[in-house]
């Protein structure tokens, strides 16, 4: 959250919303150019392919969550954003966020740092997915973010890692 301390202001994040467990924040096929800062709780971003959910991103207290495709170009997005448990978020509209970004060189620099962090996370994620071994995928993510395994339910992490809950359980016990 320290990275975002200058960003998380009432001038940018004007609304607070609370979502119940499993409540949808964004449905598939909708446009959503908002940015969500997780004040408390956890969220997942998923896509459904052949009627099966594939979690592509997990977030918890202190994280920013956004449907990036919809945010950047205003398109309809297949991504679903859903609360994993009761979650309180601060909400920024794109217009307010971008006004903040271009208000000063420091804010623009902060935005670039956030984008660089997202690109790095995406590259790490792509490398994770290229691993044939579920054990290696598990170890890479655990090494990078052990807190994730304390906060997010195992079934969601298993899905995120492209493995069955049984495989996840076996690997986590070894």
From TrEMBL:
Q: Which residues form the Cyclic nucleotide-binding domain?
A: 1-106
Q: Which InterPro entries match?
A: cNMP-bd_dom (IPR000595), cNMP-bd_dom_sf (IPR018490), RmlC-like_jellyroll (IPR014710)
PROSITE patterns (alphabetical): CNMP_BINDING_3 (PS50042)
Please give the name of this protein.
CRP-like cAMP-binding protein
Superkingdom, natural source: Bacteria
What organism is this sequence from? Sphingobacterium detergens
Transmembrane stretches, start-end? none
Q: Which Gene3D superfamilies match?
A: Jelly Rolls
């Amino acid at each position: 959250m320290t990275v975002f301390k200058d960003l998380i202001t009432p001038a940018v994040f004007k609304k607070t919303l609370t979502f119940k467990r499993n409540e949808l924040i964004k449905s598939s096929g909708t446009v959503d150019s908002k940015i969500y800062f997780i004040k408390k709780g956890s969220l997942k971003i998923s896509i459904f392919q052949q009627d099966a959910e594939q979690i592509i991103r997990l977030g918890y207290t202190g994280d920013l969550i956004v449907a990036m495709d919809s945010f950047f170009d205003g398109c309809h997005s297949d991504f679903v954003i859903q609360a994993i448990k009761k979650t309180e978020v601060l909400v920024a509209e794109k217009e307010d966020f971008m006004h903040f970004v271009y208000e000063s060189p420091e804010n623009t620099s902060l935005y670039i740092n956030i984008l660089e962090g997202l690109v790095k996370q995406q590259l790490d994620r792509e490398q994770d997915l290229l691993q044939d071994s579920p054990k290696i995928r598990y170890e890479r993510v655990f090494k990078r973010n052990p807190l994730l395994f304390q906060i997010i339910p195992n079934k969601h992490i298993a899905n995120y890692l492209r493995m069955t809950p049984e495989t996840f359980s076996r690997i986590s016990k070894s």
